[in-house]
Amino acid sequence: MSQSPYISLLTTVMGIIPIGIGINAILRPAHALSLFEFERPVAPRDQSLVDSLMIVYGARDIFMGLAISAAGFFGTRKSLGWTLIASSGVAIADGAVCWSHGLGAWNHWGFVPVLAIIGGLLVRQSDSKDGL
């Protein structure tokens, strides 16, 4: 699928974003927490727990970015499409957590239509063209 320059560019951009967010969460957990609009806990023990959870979050985002990149560069349009659609579920979940605390849901939900529409178009296109 990497023969298409547009798909390669799309894959690069859509894969780099979560990888960058994940690296940020691992290296700068307090800053990554601000993307959820949550305040950093005051107690050192709580800070340590939140920092550890941000590393888990970072690893998840890095994996998601690598999965998008792999599907785009080595897979089919259909596999990339379904990977993007699945990634929209992550944005829904992240937004729901923020919404349950009354903060920042749309920082995450704004990605849902982008991921789902592009993913759906790739799946639809692959169904009509049988892959590439």
Instruction: Give the biggest beta sheet.
Output: none
Q: What level of helicity do the residues show?
A: over 70%
Find the structural class using helix and strand composition: mainly alpha
Radius of gyration, CA atoms, in whole angstroms: 16 Å
Q: What average pLDDT do the residues reach?
A: 90
* SS strand fraction: under 5%
Number of helices: 6
Order of helices and strands: HHHHHH
User: How many beta-strand segments?
Assistant: 0
Q: Which residue ranges are poorly predicted, with pLDDT under 50 across at least 5 consecutive positions? A: none
Envelope shape:
elongated
Straight-line N-to-C gap: 6 Å
Task: Describe the protein.
This protein is 81% helix and 0% strand. The chain has 6 helices and no strands. The mean pLDDT is 90.
